[in-house]
C-alpha cells in the first residue's frame, strides 16, 4: 500500500497552501511535519532532503520534491486535473501562474513592516480586482461554461477559488462587480472535497499571523 | 502549413531568452516582433493580446500564450524535451525551477545599481555554493550525459543557457565543476545549439546601457531594485520585485 505524502513546512499557508488544496481536492490524505525551529530546517538540509535548501518539501511516490510549481504540476497531472491535452494544460499553466503570482504577493504583504502592511494589502486587492478578477470574469463570460478550461474541473479552478477566498479575507466585497466569479465561487465551493476542506478541522491553514511571520523569519533568517 | 510561432518582446534577452533557446534547441523557426517604444507595448495591451498585460507573449498554435513558464512547458512537451513520463517531468521541473532563482537575479542585475557590485558578488556566491553544486552532483551521481533520463531535455538547455550567463559574469566559474565543464562542451556541440551560438542567430546579447534605457522607457521602471529584495531569492520561488516591472 502506498504511503501517504508527507508535507514539510511551517504551520501556516505560505507556499504550501496551494499544495494542501490540490491534495485535499484530489481526495488524497496527507501527513504534515511542521517546522518550528531553525535547527529542524537545518537538519532537513544536512540530511539532504532539500535540493535547493528550500521548502516546501513533499515526500511522495518515493521522491523528495521541492519547488512549489514542480510539485503542483506533478500533482495536477497525477490526479487528472491538468486538462486533456497540451493546449488545455497550457491554458491551465497560464491561469495558475497568474493566480500563484497573486498569492505570492498576498503572502509577502504580511512580511512588510506593520505600518506598511495595510497599504500593501490594499494595493494587492486592487491589483487582484483589476488585473486578475477582470480577466477571469471575462474568460467565464466568453465560453459560458462552469469551469475555466475545457468544460471540466481542473487545477485552475481550485487555484482561482483559493485566491478569491484569500482576497475576500482582506476585502469581503472584492467580487461585487464580478457576477460570474460569484457564481463560480459558490459552485466550486460546493464540490464535496472542497466543501470538506473548507470545514473547520481540515488541514487548511488560517491567514498568516504574527507568530507565523516570526517563525518563518527565524527559520529562514531574513 | 502551420504558421511559425511569433514572439512579442523588446529587443533584448529578459524573460524571452529562454524561449528563444528552447525553440532553437527544438529546431523550430520563429518570428519576432520586437518593440522599441512604450507606444508599441501599450498598443499590444490595448489590443487585448496580453492576458495579464505583460510580456513575454508567444503566438503559437492559435494561442496567445503568456507566462514564461507556461510557454516553456508547452514547447518542451510539444517537442519531446519534457521527459518520457511524469516522474522525469517533475525532475525536469524541479531542476528548471531551481535554475530560475539564479537566472532571475542575474537577469535583474543591471537594474540593481548602485549596488551592482555587491549583488554580483552575491550572485557568484550563490552560483558556486548553492546552485552549480546541485547539478554537478546530479551528473556525477548518475554518470549520464544529460540531467534527466539519459536524453536531452529542457533542463539541459536551460542549464546550458544559465552556465553561459554566469560565465559572462565570471568566465572561470566552472573551474571547480568538472562534470559541468564536460556537460557544457557536450551540449555546445549539438548541431542546433552550435547554430544558435553563431553570429546572426536570434540569440540576443547581454543588456548594455542603451538597451536598459530602451527597456526602462517601454516598461516604465525607473527605480533601482531595492537591495533587500535580492536576499529573498533563497526564500521564495521568485524574487519579489518581479511584480514591479511588467516583464
TrEMBL record, chain A:
Domain GST C-terminal: 85-208
Keywords: Transferase
Entry EC no(s): 2.5.1.18
Enzyme class: transferase
GO terms (BP aspect): glutathione metabolic process; xenobiotic metabolic process
An example Gene Ontology molecular-function term: glutathione transferase activity
Domain GST N-terminal: 3-83
UniProt keyword Transferase, yes or no: yes
Family named by the database record: Belongs to the GST superfamily. Alpha family.
Protein name, UniProt field: glutathione transferase
UniProt source species: Sarcophilus harrisii
Gene: LOC100927091
TrEMBL record, chain B:
Domain GST C-terminal residue range list: 85-207
EC number from the UniProt entry: 2.5.1.18
Keyword hit for Ligase: no
Domain named GST N-terminal: residues: 3-83
TM stretches of this protein: none
Kinase is among the record's keywords: no
PROSITE patterns in alphabetical order: GST_CTER, GST_NTER
Keywords noted in UniProt: Transferase
Enzymatic class: transferase
A Pfam family of this chain: GST_N
GO BP terms: glutathione metabolic process; xenobiotic metabolic process
Superkingdom assignment: Eukaryota
Segments forming a coiled coil: none
GO molecular function, one term: glutathione transferase activity
Entry-linked InterPro entries: Glutathione-S-Trfase_C-like, Glutathione-S-Trfase_C_sf, Glutathione_S-Trfase, Glutathione_S-Trfase_N, GST_alpha, GST_C, GST_superfamily, Thioredoxin-like_sf
Family: Belongs to the GST superfamily. Alpha family.
Entry protein name: glutathione transferase
Species this protein is from: Sarcophilus harrisii (Tasmanian devil)
Gene (name only): GSTA1
Amino acid at each position: 500500500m502506498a504511503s501517504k505524502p508527507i508535507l514539510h513546512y511551517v504551520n501556516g499557508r505560505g507556499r504550501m497552501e496551494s499544495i494542501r488544496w490540490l491534495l485535499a481536492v484530489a481526495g488524497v490524505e496527507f501527513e504534515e511535519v511542521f517546522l518550528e525551529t531553525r535547527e529542524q530546517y537545518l537538519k532537513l538540509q544536512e540530511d539532504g532532503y532539500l535540493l535547493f535548501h528550500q521548502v516546501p518539501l513533499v515526500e511522495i511516490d518515493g521522491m523528495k520534491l521541492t519547488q512549489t510549481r514542480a510539485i503542483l504540476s506533478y500533482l495536477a497531472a497525477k490526479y487528472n486535473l491538468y486538462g486533456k491535452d497540451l493546449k488545455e494544460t497550457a491554458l491551465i499553466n497560464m491561469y495558475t501562474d497568474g493566480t500563484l503570482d497573486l498569492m505570492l504577493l498576498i503572502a509577502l504583504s504580511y512580511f512588510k513592516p506593520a505600518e506598511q502592511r495595510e497599504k500593501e494589502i490594499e494595493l494587492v486587492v486592487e491589483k487582484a480586482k483589476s488585473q486578475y478578477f477582470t480577466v477571469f470574469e471575462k474568460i467565464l463570460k466568453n465560453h459560458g461554461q462552469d469551469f475555466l478550461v475545457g468544460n471540466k474541473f481542473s487545477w485552475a479552478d481550485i487555484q482561482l477559488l483559493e485566491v478569491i477566498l484569500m482576497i475576500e479575507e482582506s476585502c469581503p466585497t472584492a467580487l461585487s462587480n464580478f457576477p460570474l466569479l460569484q457564481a463560480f465561487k459558490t459552485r466550486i465551493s460546493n464540490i464535496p472535497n472542497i466543501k470538506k476542506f473548507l470545514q473547520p478541522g481540515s488541514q487548511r491553514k488560517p491567514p498568516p499571523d504574527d507568530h507565523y511571520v516570526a517563525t518563518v523569519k527565524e527559520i529562514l533568517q531574513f | 502549413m502551420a504558421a511559425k510561432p511569433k514572439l512579442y518582446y523588446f529587443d533584448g534577452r529578459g524573460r524571452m531568452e529562454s524561449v528563444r533557446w528552447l525553440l532553437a534547441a527544438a529546431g523550430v523557426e520563429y518570428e519576432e516582433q520586437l518593440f522599441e517604444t512604450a507606444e508599441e507595448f501599450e498598443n499590444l495591451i490595448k489590443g487585448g493580446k496580453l492576458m495579464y498585460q505583460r510580456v513575454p507573449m508567444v503566438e503559437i498554435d492559435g494561442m496567445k500564450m503568456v507566462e514564461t513558464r507556461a510557454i516553456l512547458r508547452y514547447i518542451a512537451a510539444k517537442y519531446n524535451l519534457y521527459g518520457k513520463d511524469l516522474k522525469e517531468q517533475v525532475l525536469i521541473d524541479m531542476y528548471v525551477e531551481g535554475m530560475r532563482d539564479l537566472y532571475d537575479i542575474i537577469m535583474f542585475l543591471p537594474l540593481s545599481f548602485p549596488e551592482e557590485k555587491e549583488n554580483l558578488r552575491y550572485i557568484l556566491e550563490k552560483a558556486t555554493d548553492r546552485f552549480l553544486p546541485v547539478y554537478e552532483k546530479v551528473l556525477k551521481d548518475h554518470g549520464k550525459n544529460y540531467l534527466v533520463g539519459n536524453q536531452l531535455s529542457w533542463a539541459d538547455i536551460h542549464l546550458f543557457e544559465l552556465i553561459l550567463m554566469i560565465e559572462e559574469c565570471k568566465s572561470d566559474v566552472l573551474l571547480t565543476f568538472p562534470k559541468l565543464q564536460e556537460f557544457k562542451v557536450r551540449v555546445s556541440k549539438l548541431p542546433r545549439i552550435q547554430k544558435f551560438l553563431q553570429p546572426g542567430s536570434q540569440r540576443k546579447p547581454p543588456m548594455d546601457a542603451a538597451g536598459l534605457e530602451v527597456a526602462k522607457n517601454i516598461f516604465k521602471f525607473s527605480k533601482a531594485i531595492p537591495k533587500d529584495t535580492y536576499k529573498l531569492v533563497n526564500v521564495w520561488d521568485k524574487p519579489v520585485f518581479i511584480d514591479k516591472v511588467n516583464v
